[in-house]
Amino acid sequence: MNDSARLDGILAFLRSAERLKDEVRSAWTSGGRPETVAAHTWRLALMALVLHDDFPEVDFARLVQLCLIHDLGEAIGGDVPAVQQSGGPEKAQQERRDLLTLLQPLPAPLREEIAALWDEYEAARTPEARLAKALDKLETILQHNQGRNPADFDYRFNLTYGQRYTTGDARIEAIRAVLDRETRARAEHARAVLSPAPEREAAPAAASDVATLTPALAAQFAALALAHVRREYPNKLDHVMNGPAEVRSPRALHPVFYGSFDWHSCVHGYWLLARLCRRFPALPQVQAIRTLFDAQLTEANVAGELAYLDAPLRAGFERPYGWAWLLMLAAELARHETPRGRRWSAALAPLAARFVERFRAFLPRATYPVRVGTHFNTAFALALALEYARAAGDADFERQLVEQARAWYADDEDCQAWEPGGDDFLSSALVEAECMRRALPPHEFAPWLQRFLPRLAGRRPASLFRPAVVSDRSDGKIAHLDGLNLSRAWCWRALAATWPADDPRAALARETAELHLAASLPHVAGDYMGEHWLATFALLALDAEPALG
Questions:
Q1: What is the pLDDT of residues 170-202, one digit of tens each?
Q2: Phi, psi (deg, nearest 5) at residue 162
Q3: How far apart are CA 452 and CA 316, in angstroms?
């Protein structure tokens, strides 16, 4: 390789590695920002520097090299939070594949050198690799103890994390002992803050206790979304390939919305962040959200999303669910009255316009509605699209959406509500009611609702009043049922506001909404199958715009 080509390759590699400055981890800084992989790597190397005199048997230069490269693969695959790591061979194998992809532009000798360093670190057989592993675990614990964490942060995790690498050496154990004392102190403080008064300890939590969007809950939602919107893997692509050249990574296909397991979840993760940034300007994560949006919502990145849509056989990409959520994001950004917000809104506008075009072309051909409780539900898509049309002042699009809602649903009567299905996250019955609430003026909606659900006052259909049971939250389909509970709460709250205060149906709707929130709001985090999307539906239920007709 000549000198010019060698330099070009090195610079290309460095530009790709720069992603680690944006790739966030699950930890928080003392200033309340999500920690990045690059920041973790920097302090890990700094630890090696200040502690190297205590380990004279270790080759200091090699130790620092191992620290610098140990998370390089996360520039491709993203960080897997420590609490979610299984430690199995699959994670290491994927990280190595990602690393080799990242190293590709480098000259062969450099590629081989860095790959060998990573293999040495992963095997942890040399003194330098074992020390690098130990310091990596200690730096993570140090950050957990130092960070401005969410109120429900689990400090107990620190006490068992990384023990395999931090025992057996008195010098490491001494550092670990100090950090464990700090962990216990932080855990005790958090317990004191969160514990209820003694006389209430045995009482079950009332549903109303969890039904308000507090700043603390908003911070939890923001933290969850920041952790997944740029997490590229695992990923479930909706991707029609027109040839072998289109076998590409999610990030290459979708420059903006490549995280969160799938495209639509990433889109509504951005909606959640945009909404919380506007509603809670003092949120600890606001600066991280602004930094993310500045980096992602650019003309160039949006042009890449448009280019993906323009390829053959992609007219149905994410129809209609992803279309609707993209328009919801555009509607939310249109409400941001800051220079930054206007810049983000302008950058996304061409993509929103493209999906408006697709809606307008598709609806005249859609003879029948789709009434399932999953992504293909047309009532949910119309409801969200109406919110966009009104926020954007697009009267023609609004008129078309209202006419379509009338054509599909105006004659529906005495809904039986045969739900839930095993993988529903929408109530076919209630989301249709919410769609018509948005489409019809109040004097038309009230008699329509009476015809559609005539037995609500008697708690019929009974299925709408019982929260769904979620038997396995690690199963992505079964975990949909938590979303069903949250989306039902959204619909019930909206319906409650349509009845006079003294109408028994209003109180019943509010009560039922609280029961559904209590069933699933505690489970928006815990397993990635729900964690990558459920907070959006919780926010929808707790803080949605009225969007009346």
A1: 999 999 999 988 888 888 776 654 444 343 333
A2: 70, 15
A3: 31
